[in-house]
Design a protein that fits this description.
The chain is mostly beta strands and 137 residues long. It has no helices and 11 strands. It has strands spanning 3-7, 17-23, 28-35, 42-46, 63-65, 68-70, 77-79, 97-98, 100-103, 106-109, 114-119. The strands form 3 sheets. It has a 5-stranded antiparallel beta sheet with strand order 8-4-3-2-11, with no helix packed on it. The structure holds FE2/S2 (inorganic) cluster (FES). Keywords: 2Fe-2S, Iron, Iron-sulfur, Metal-binding.
Length: 137
């Protein structure tokens, strides 16, 4: 089922928009929408580097340069439109694609393998005991 993720205008010009999906095995995964020069202007990928367990977008947007997404761990760069990598330790590997389309200025998830869960990453609404303790009032 096609589900709207966000407006195209919400996707940063030189970084990524983070959202969460559930795959066919009910695993929750993070995914990113990135700007791409080719039509329809955005692409989406699972938010994992194929080299080692490492999120490309760690919650504040992935680093990008010249249309490529930069892995924060070892610096491999992935083509934002194609997902492929030609350099660094992830050379020859590719990001896992998530199919999206643009409709009425919105980015729509059209991938049968993934269901839209929410905007933001999986840890975003962790109400852990970090900053505000419920006991301190
Ligand atoms: S973990 Fe991304 S290049 Fe090594």
């Amino acid at each position: 089922m096609a589900e709207t993720i966000t407006a195209v205008s919400e996707v940063p010009e030189n970084s990524s928009y983070l959202f969460s999906v559930e795959d066919a095995f009910t695993n929750e995964r993070e995914a990113i929408i990135v700007p791409c020069e080719d039509d329809p202007g955005v692409e989406a990928w699972i938010n994992d580097c194929p080299h080692e367990p490492q999120k490309l977008d760690r919650g504040s947007g992935a680093a990008m340069r010249d249309g490529e997404i930069i892995c924060p761990k070892h610096g491999s760069m992935f083509d934002a439109c194609e997902g492929g990598c030609g350099n660094g330790p992830a050379a020859g590997m590719s990001l896992l694609s998530v199919d999206v389309e643009v409709a009425d200025s919105d980015v729509v998830l059209v991938d049968n393998d993934y269901e839209f869960l929410k905007t933001g990453g999986l840890d975003d609404d962790d109400s852990g005991p970090s900053s505000t303790s419920p006991l301190s009032f």
